[in-house]
Amino acid sequence: MPGPTVSYRNLLVVAAFIFLLPIWARLVPGSALHFDIVNLMVLAGIYAFAVIGLNLLVGYAGQVSLGHAAFFGIGAYTTAILCTRFAWFPTWLGVLFGALLAGVAGLLIGIPVLRLKGNYLAIATLAFGEISYIFFRQSGITGGTVGITRIPPFSMFGFSFDSDLRFFFLVWICVMVLMLLTINIIQSRVGRALRALHSSEVAADAMGVNTGRYKTKAFVLSAVFAGLGGALFAHFQRYINPESFMLTISILFLTMVVIGGMGNIWGALVGAISLTFLPEVIRALPQWIPGLPEGLANFNNYVLVLYGLLLMVFMIFMPQGMTVGLARGVSYGEMQAKRLKDRIRARKFSRGE
Amino acid sequence: MNLNLKENTTERNRVLWGTVAFVALLIALTVSIKGSTGLQWILSGLTVGSIYSLVAIGFSIIYASTRVINFAQGEFSMLGGLLLYSLCTKAGLPVPVGFLLAVIIVTLIGAGFERTAIHHLRGQSVITMIIVTIGFSIFLRAIALWSWGSNPLPIASFSGDKSVRFLGASLVPQNLWVFGFTAVMVILVFLFFNRTLVGKGMRAAAANPDAASMVGVSTSMSSLIAWALAAAIGAAAGIIIAPITMPSYGIGTMLGLKGFTAAVLGGLGNAPGAVVGGLVLGVLEKVAGGALPQGYSGYTDALAFLILILVLLLRPQGLLGKPEGIKV
Amino acid sequence: MKDNPVLEINEVTKLFGGLAALKDVSLSVYPGEIKAIIGPNGAGKTTLFDVLTGIYRPSSGSVFFRKKDIIGLRPDQITCMGIIRTFQTIRLFEGMTVLENTMVGCQCRTGSGFFANGIRSRKARNEEKQIQQEALEVLKSVGLETRAYETGTSLPYGQQRMLELTRALASRPEILLLDEPAAGLNPYETNELSQFLFGLRERGLTLLVVEHDMGLVMDISDEIVVLDYGEVIARGEPETVQNDPRVIEAYLGVEVEDNA
């Protein structure tokens, strides 16, 4: 069985690549790209928190959630409220509380709701997400529709993370740690238990897997990760309003999991990064390609059209997502190349060379 | 594996009459405490409830035939309303013509989606189906935004705006259109599924696809018809309520969610359940909205979702549905 | 020996709505015994297994495993006590290798959770090593270790059945509940299965087998219990049951002596 060292090596390679990103991003003149790579990567990293947890829950444990923006929001609002109400409140503690509260919410919601399956589970989590959103929008503590502003920047041991670059390293170091933890979990008996219950809950029960507890723990873990991301989000943007925690965000997270590739933890990073950059790339296209017709030049018109199309097309042609789909594409290509080689060899042989 | 059918029907009847009694009690209480204002709430609750019922019927038809939850159902209604605007208010076509044209267009869109996406993805995992219909809803909403802009569009009422007094509350004629249309639709859907061969065939295909195909019922055709019907009914519903709601690209979302709640409340896949669920939800919403103190009226939306979660946890088959058995 | 049954089933009744799937079913299984349960389709055999493994709670009656009441326990708890069950239709874990499938069988004996495994604590690493070793040993004992890294569901049917059994063995059962282990096997494979089951008995296991394949049943059983419409209609040694007129009547229209 391939040991964990293989995935660790991959993780190191990816980490190195990402940490060097600000350097080679500087090589491209910012004005040419029309978007800020480092800034977008911070956002992608923040989303990755939620997506990694969701990938574990949906891809490995097989439980669908359409309400994870709620946990993201709980993390964000907790730290925002604590740090704005009490000026002395340390931001790192706020983030911790945010993640914890999100975890508690995950426990309270998860225990009853995880008894449901498939479509019904998706709908129940969607309902929870909507209730949370309405609460964010209506309640006084959360600042209602205006939200919370003047959130202090994240700081630890006197060091303040108030620039994009500093936040970039903070976020991505944390993402790598989360990836490490998740990879370890997946390659352990816990991961096997989750995959087993995904495949057949009844058979997993029969093999001694306490499926109820495993599902709940995976759900809570994914809620904690999402809460962590949300809390960092609050300190990055320095203001939050309910619009950042709507159903569309829950859908975005799930989309990142599915398009990135389920059943493969790298899918979380692939999905988070590509779906954060894609709209910006499309938005920048008209400025790279001069002479586009009026209707297409104004990106805002059609970004959502393309998003919807992307989802449908992906599900029809590559439902397993990019990492799995590309891996299969690569092995398919290898197989075709081998066949071609064999055919050439056979022809040479028959010609008597 | 509940084979005692007689027990099932008596239980369902009990639930049905219990619900009727509960709603009657609620209505009586509201009217006696709040008088004609209360009656106004009830009537507007029944209006909005009828709309939910129509959306819910669409969900139920598709779920019953294909076990797919169509996240784009609300968008069918949205398109119906917007198309009516373009055809009648802008292009000046008479309402019946515009109605027919809009319904046909949306039906074709629904059928087109079924043939390209749903048919192709038969038997795929739940999450694939969820994402593909979500993608479809995002796509339709974005096209609507692109084509019609973001402002709500005014549409003239079908029979004018002279309100009618009814026991101290007032109704506009459009409300009557909504009630009438809903009643007609419910009867037609019931007749279709219970008295026509096609309808009965679709029910058979949903209950047991293999057996159905052995007697010549095509599951593929069944799915196509279900989607076409749901699109048509959704579009028609959107048209009927257009003068009241002022359609825009975004109304499909809440409509879909509420309609879906109504469907689950009444029992997914159950047409009479969709109606009961819709009306109950509508009345509960309006009464709660009226009864809640000023600053809390925004929470009425949360009521629907709370009901949704409670139904799923406590009685997933809804008020009138049959429990889906566990197979081991 | 005779008064220490491994499994005691006392007057178990299971009602679904108004229908009695099981009615006053009583039987005891003794250590080292191979007992078979037969009966026409729909007789309640699988339902009995479901009750024994905690999937259903009986409407009345009791079940004791080594004198302990197991009614109301969760399926995974019952498994970890030593009652392991296989299914009528193969339920291998998809997307997992032969080895991984077997390793799941070792769940009961290990306990490191999300946190310990997340940080790869010493306990977690040791348990993982232990699980892998035990799983490989079990695979070796049945001859499947050569296919350890292949996907479980890519194996030929007969070997998939064997894998399911192997996975069950990895859980270190005291008593195995086998639900139609010969389903889909050809006569050669069925014969191999017989030998395998005898071998299990020699290792100290007790077997309760639901089967339709009468050849296998006659071959291996110490005692046969016959269910029909949820009730026990006959029990005894193979030859006795074979000639019992009530049994023959229950199977009317189905061959009793040849492979079903």
Explain the overall architecture.
The complex is a heterotrimer of chains A (about 350), B (about 325) and C (about 260). The model of chain A has no long low-confidence stretch (mean pLDDT about 90). Chain A is about 75% helix and about 0% strand. Chain A folds into 2 domains: about 5-290 and about 295-320, Orthogonal Bundle (ABC transporter involved in vitamin B12 uptake, BtuC); about 320-353. Chain A has helices at about 5-20, 20-25, 30-35, 35-60, 70-85, 90-115, 120-140, 165-185, 190-200, 200-205, 210-235, 245-260, 265-290, 295, 305-315, 320-350; strands spanning about 155, 160. In chain A, α4 packs across α12, α4 packs antiparallel against α13 and α9 packs across α11. In chain B, strands 1-2 form a two-stranded antiparallel sheet. Chain C is of the alpha/beta class and about 260 residues long. The mean pLDDT of chain C is about 90. Helix content of chain C is about 35%, strand content about 25%. Chains A and B meet through α7, α12 and α15 of A and α4, α9 and α11 of B.
Task: Give a topology summary.
The complex is a heterotrimer of chains A (353), B (328) and C (260).
Chain A: H1 4-19, H2 21-27, H3 30-33, H4 37-60, H5 68-85, H6 91-113, H7 118-138, E1 154-156, E2 159-161, H8 164-186, H9 189-199, H10 201-206, H11 211-237, H12 247-260, H13 266-288, H14 294-297, H15 303-317, H16 322-350
Antiparallel strand pairs in A: 1-2
Helix pairs in contact in A: 1-8, 4-8, 4-11, 4-12, 4-13, 5-6, 5-7, 5-11, 6-11, 9-11, 12-13
Chain B: H1 5-66, H2 73-90, H3 95-118, H4 126-148, E1 164-166, E2 169-171, H5 173-195, H6 197-207, H7 209-214, H8 219-245, H9 251-266, H10 271-291, H11 300-314
Helix pairs in contact in B: 1-5, 1-8, 1-9, 1-10, 2-3, 2-4, 2-8, 2-9, 3-8, 5-6, 5-8, 6-8, 9-10, 9-11, 10-11
Chain C: E1 7-16, E2 19-29, E3 34-38, H1 45-52, E4 60-65, E5 68-69, H2 75-81, E6 83-85, H3 98-104, H4 114-118, H5 122-142, H6 157-170, E7 175-179, H7 187-202, E8 206-210, H8 214-220, E9 223-228, E10 231-236, H9 238-243, H10 245-250
Parallel strand pairs in C: 3-8, 3-9, 6-7, 7-8
Antiparallel strand pairs in C: 1-2, 1-4, 4-5, 9-10
